[in-house]
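Internal ticket - ligand job 452, zinc ion:
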Amino acid sequence: MPSASKRERMLNQSRILIKGGKIVNEDCSIISDVYIEDGRIKEVGLNLQIPAGVTVIDATDKLVIPGGIDTHTHMELAFMGTKAVDDFHIGTKVKKEMETLAKEKGVNSFKMFMAYKDVFMLQDHELYAAFSQCKEIGAIAQVHAENGDLIAEGAKKMLSLGITGPEGHELCRPEEVEAEATQRAITIAHAVNCPLYVVHVMSKSAAKVVSNARRNGRVVFGEPIAAGLGTDGTHCWHKDWAHAAKFVMGPPLRPDPSTPGYLMDLLANDDLSVTGTDNCTFSVCQKALGKDDFTKIPNGVNGVEDRMSVIWEKGVHSGKMDENRFVAVTSSNAAKIFNFYPQKGKIAKGCDADVVIWDPEATRKISAATHHQAVDYNIFEGMECHGVPVVTISRGKVVYERGQLKTQPGQGRFVPRQPYAEFIYKRVNQREQVGQPSPVIRKPYDGEIIAI
Ligand code: URP
Ligand code: ZN
Ligand code: ZN
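stdout (structure tokens):
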């Protein structure tokens, strides 16, 4: 039994008043206080009647935003002969298991690969089957869109030309390899009326494919990632092998330096919908598995820690998007697509108390020397970012405060999600009802038939 003073301390920690900040949701911003109790937002407003002894956090001149939702990470992923150094990953398998996961385990999205030939790559008929099943069980299909056959051929060609360094990784999978697969995935998903989510959209060409499909009415969402919005693939041509190898991921960061700005423009204007990181970190000594052959460099980059700052800097500070769109693309849209909005992704009475107190004016320089990740470099090294998290609250507990992490391993929780997210399935279900083709009613043909 905790002592009376410890009980009092625990109680105070689960009761927090955030005072004087500007609450930013995806639809509007308003100066207001937020009172948190037992992991939930209990009240939002001014002059709230609050019990004595609560922890008060002053948020004057700060923004109070919903906790970020990173849509795409790989923790502890066993991959390309080694294991990602930051922890935790969940994998998926076949048709019946998909149904069990969706109906009983709260999983409502499944990622399919069109790349990694002879490892994960699916053929078109397999994608058709997987997308059909996603549609059947009310899930959203996610796809890693790259043409795995072309990559395999391209890799052989580069090696035969004596190109063994990290630049070979991009050269064997140019933009159209990503764009073609993106278009193919959208076509297959449309054929079975399945909503589609394209993970890590990395090139202008693939982004245009997603954007055009949305304008043609397809139910498709594109996910640019922090790496693709914050840096580019010119690094893979760096003379220092280790520097170049740090930037190897698939689909590759593109050497066209105007790509990040272009992806950000599309994200700001809703051609692309939501941001992840695809955080999949391998230290330099792991990357070195491919020192003589780029096909053996474990693919993946960091991002999970810096996503919010990179997107604020390149998106909001640059003037491409406002603070509300920032919340939409870092949090609310993810919560809607994956069906846990407004439990997450919103600051309002009754929502989970996942809150960030954000200083839009403060700056910080990203560096591996100061980051909290296990990986021994940072692809955003030296980037000066406006927009700094001051306090982060997860389910009502302060987990980060002014540079200090206050977490314990195992504190995270899986959030079970229901299938048939309204945000996507309202349209899908209606189309199913009204969009079925019907036969032309005609008199039977009664003329001559050729004898065979
Ligand atoms: O290079 C990448 N993207 N590594 C992580 C695995 C994946 O394809 O998402
Ligand atoms: Zn992928
Ligand atoms: Zn990934």
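Auto-summary: The pocket of zinc ion (ligand 2) is lined by residues 144, 199-200 (CB under 6 Å). Residues 277 and 368 are 17 Å apart (CA to CA).
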